[in-house]
């Protein structure tokens, strides 16, 4: 059974480690998370046919990074990992996520942009 949690915008990145990973079933590799990102790197992944892409938040002075790659076990899924906490106003995106108790991983089940 999945426990459902609602992660609100900036809180999404505030895991104790400052890292959070999402595994999302998606054809698009770039999920609309409300922030603007700049690609700065690409690396091939051992034992995986899919490259890993690196992005940095495009807001000046913000050091949040994300990594995006297709799940090597199931290419229908995209794994997105965020590192750090945005130091600027969040766009008010709410993530609806479920945590798989077996792996501890979060699954995004939807996003919702709050009205300003
Ligand atoms: Zn940022």
From TrEMBL:
Q: Which Gene3D superfamilies match?
A: WRKY domain (2.20.25.80)
Q: What is its main location?
A: nucleus
* PROSITE patterns noted in UniProt: WRKY (PS50811)
List all membrane-crossing ranges: none
Domain WRKY stretches: 26-91
- Return the SMART domains for the record: WRKY (SM00774)
Write out the entry's keywords from A to Z. DNA-binding, Nucleus, Transcription, Transcription regulation
Naming one, the record's GO cellular component terms include: nucleus
Q: What is this protein called?
A: WRKY90
* Originating organism: Triticum aestivum (Wheat)
Organism lineage string? Eukaryota, Viridiplantae, Streptophyta, Embryophyta, Tracheophyta
């Amino acid at each position: 059974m999945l426990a459902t949690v609602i992660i609100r915008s900036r809180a999404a990145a505030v895991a104790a480690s400052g890292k959070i990973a999402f595994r999302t079933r998606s054809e698009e590799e770039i999920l609309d998370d409300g922030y603007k990102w700049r690609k700065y790197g690409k690396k091939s992944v051992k034992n995986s046919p899919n490259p890993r892409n690196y992005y940095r938040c495009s807001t000046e002075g913000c050091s949040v990074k994300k990594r995006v790659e297709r799940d090597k076990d199931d290419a229908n899924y995209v794994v997105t990992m965020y590192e750090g906490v945005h130091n600027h106003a969040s766009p008010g995106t709410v993530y609806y996520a479920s945590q798989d108790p077996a792996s501890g991983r979060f699954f995004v089940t939807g996003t919702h942009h709050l009205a300003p």
